[in-house]
Amino acid sequence: MEIETQRKKAMLLKAMGHPIRIEIIEMLGEREMCACEIASLFDYDRTTVSKHLAILKDLGIIEQRRDGLYIYYSLKLPCLIPMLQCIEHAILGDPVEIQFCSKCSCSKDGSEI
């Protein structure tokens, strides 16, 4: 594989390497949410949560849309949810079942998303 592709994969995984960002990804895997709603769920100031959202958005993990004064975020890579669930099962020692997402361009052969 091309080194640039591997570098981009590493950047995406690095961006996911923070507990707040993982929690944001999992929440957005359930539904679209307003930035103010996301910020209210954490014991951090809005600026901190906003920085985490910006990191995820800049790497294409989440996307945003504006509705008047509000900004809504949604998960752009829904295939991350089964991946995070798989990791959680492995951590807990539960049996792991591989699932593949039909909502994005990831595939069973492991090709790039």
TrEMBL record:
Q: Pfam families per the record?
A: HTH_5
Oxidoreductase keyword on record: no
SUPFAM superfamilies (UniProt xref)? Winged helix' DNA-binding domain
Alphabetized InterPro entries for the sequence: ArsR-like_HTH, HTH_ArsR_DNA-bd_dom, Metal_resp_trans_reg, WH-like_DNA-bd_sf, WH_DNA-bd_sf
Keyword line: DNA-binding, Transcription, Transcription regulation
Q: Read off the CDD domains from this record.
A: HTH_ARSR
- The organism's place on the tree of life at top rank: Bacteria
- Domain HTH arsR-type: from-to ranges: 1-94
| GO terms, molecular function | DNA binding; DNA-binding transcription factor activity
Q: Does the keyword Phosphoprotein apply?
A: no
Query: In its UniProt entry, what is this protein called?
Result: Putative transcriptional regulator
